[in-house]
Structures are given as structure tokens and as C-alpha cells.
Amino acid sequence: MILCKVKNLKGGEILAKTIMTPGFRILLSEDTILRPEYIKKIEELGITEVYIKGNEHIPMQEVVLIKSEVETLLKNEVKSILEKHTYSRTDELMELKKTAENIIENILKEDGVIEKIYDIRERNSDIYEHSISTCSLATLTALKLKVKKEKVQDIGVGCLLHDLGLRYLTIKYEDQDIFSKLAKFELAEYRKHPIYGYTVLKEEKWISDISKNIILYHHENIDGTGYPLKMRDIPFESQIVNVCDTFDEKICGIGCRRVKVYEAVEYLKSFKGKKFKTEIVDALLEFTAVYPAGSYVLLSNNSVGKVIRQNKEFPNRPVISIIKDENGNEVKEEITIDLVKINYLFIEKVLA
Q1: How many CB atoms lie within 10 A of CB 294?
Q2: DSSP 8-state code for residue 192
Q3: What angle do CA 302, 304, 309 make, to 5 degrees?
């Protein structure tokens, strides 16, 4: 709880103590969010100071591509469809076309979807969640690159099926570096999963060539270092999925050790223009928060803070609520720092 001068209120603060008139009538109750018109009324009544709640009550503004409840429904839908699938039967996979449409519609119905910065979090290596996340990332990346809507639909379908070939493997690939941990024959088998998925669907008429190419080429890099074919001339839609798939694999640990979002961002930046087309990486990173809301970070002055919201033009310079000062002491009053406005402070590392 902080005693604050009314003249310093900006609006949006939460009242910690009820404000009463001289006649003991309640003017504003505890927990009221102070709107500008309330602040004006308080000033008119000659009240100069009020108690507001501290940083533990600062609302965290997390922005996600797909709402969690919707994502859970979609994940269960994808899981149900893929688990019914057998190598010899592909008709049930047609249902994923509708699922891809639902994902794209959910993204498009959000106001200002292209302009936002999204809090994308590292998580466990669930293959179904990974397919949905890759689909969401690739959809928004494609929209930013002004890809035609019908091709965005094909990208969505390709994303939901891109790792179909992994269903035919018994190799453990979750949260480990496959290149150092797998035996040579296991790694060779793992690298065939795009071929396995493509082979199952290559003769099907209900799935487009763009989607089929995504399944086959989603691990190919433009410098020829990818697999399974080591191609350089890769369809643009497949390149989009390659970048988004690589990013999401990093943060959920599929075929690699799981890393923090900022580490996955740095990986893409380091191979921009080499493995990955620059314009695609730039489009993805334009809407990706380097430090998602809720992350605890260590600052360059040794203070610790919690990320509470993003800055639209600067994904790597969020707004932070300080919880420990540079000496490691708990902060008792509200201290909010906008890293865009304070250029001498930097995030050193993510703590949690």
C-alpha cells in the first residue's frame, strides 16, 4: 500500500483504502480502479493524497495468439484426429482442413491482430500443441508478409500435418539434442520423418501441393544444411513454416533441448540470411515478445523485475515492475520501469 499524491495519479491505479466524504459517505470503495474522471472529482473535493495498492496488484497484460481455452479445444481436436490415423488410412486427416480454418479464423477475429506483440512461452514438448503453435505463428507471419489468403489456408493445413511422420517413429526426441544424444541409425531415422509424412499424403487430392511441400521441406534450409534432401531451392511457403517450426521446436524441446524465448530469438537472428530468409525471420520477430509477460528478469544493475507488458515498437524493451532492488532487498513500494525510456538499463538474463 502506497500513499500517493492525487496530482501524480495517471489513471488505472487501484485504490487501497475507501475514500469518504466529510459526512462519512463512501465516495470510492477499496479496490476501485481510478479512472481519470474519478481523479478529477477527488481533486475537486480538495483531497490531496490517497492510498493505492502496490506492485503486487499491477495488472499483467499478457497478449496471446489464441486464447488458452480455445487452444485446449483445438489441441484435443488435433490429437483425436491424428491418433485415429493409421499409415494405410488418410481420409480422417481431411478433418484437419477445418481445424486449420478455425485456427486462422480465431487469429483474424482479434482486433489489430497484425499490430500486436504476442507473449509466446516455452512449454513442454507436446507434439499436438506444437502443431497448433506452429500453425498460429506461420499464419500470422504469412499475413505480415501479405501472402494470399488461399495460400495461408494451405500453410495452416501443412503446419497441422508437418510432423505426421513422427507418429511412425519410436525414437525419443523430446527435450534432448538429437544430434549428440541419438545413435547414428536413430538420427538417420529421425531425419526421414518429413519423407514418411509426405509419402502418406502425396497421392491425396484433398490436400494441396503447397501443404504437401511443407510436410516434405519444413526442415530444409536455404543454405542446403537442412534435411532430408539438403535442398536450397525451397518454396516460399515451406520457408515460412521452416522458420516458425524451428522457433517453436526450440521453446518446447522437440528434437532439441528446450530453451528460453529470448534464446530462440537469438538463434533465429544468428542464422538470418544464412539458413533462413531475412524477411521471414523479421516478420516473425516483429510480433514476438522477447521477454513474455510474467517473466522474471535480472537487470544490469542487479535488480530483479517482472515483465508486465510489452512495447509495440521494441519487443526487447518491455515494461517491468521491480520486485527486488540492486541489493537484493524486497521492494515495498510500486516501481515500474519502461525500458524504452530508461536506456541505461538492460535485461541480463531471464530468471523464470
Answers
A1: 13
A2: T
A3: 130
Handedness of CA 105, 107, 108, 111 (dihedral sign): positive
Nine-digit cell string for 35:
479512472
More confident residue, 136 or 83: 136
Helices H, strands E: what count in the chain?
Answer: 12, 9
CA distances from 115 to 76, 97, 155, 182, 340 (A): 29, 27, 21, 41, 18
Burial of 100 (0-12, 13-18, 19+ CB in 10 A): buried
Whether the CA torsion 303, 304, 310, 312 is positive or negative: it is positive
What are φ and ψ of residue 197, in 5° steps? -65, -40
What DSSP string describes 292-310? -TT-EEEETTS-EEEEEEE
What distance in Å separates the CA atoms of residue 19 and residue 50, rounded to the nearest whole number?
Answer: 8
Say what the pTM is. 0.82
Strands (E), 74-190: none
Grid cell locating 214: 511443407
Radius of gyration, alpha carbons of the chain: 24
Q: What is the pLDDT of residues 214-246, one digit of tens each?
A: 999 999 999 999 999 999 999 999 999 999 999
Mean pLDDT of 105-112: 90
Question: Nearest CA to 333 among 49, 100, 4, 86?
Answer: 4
3-state secondary structure of 28: strand
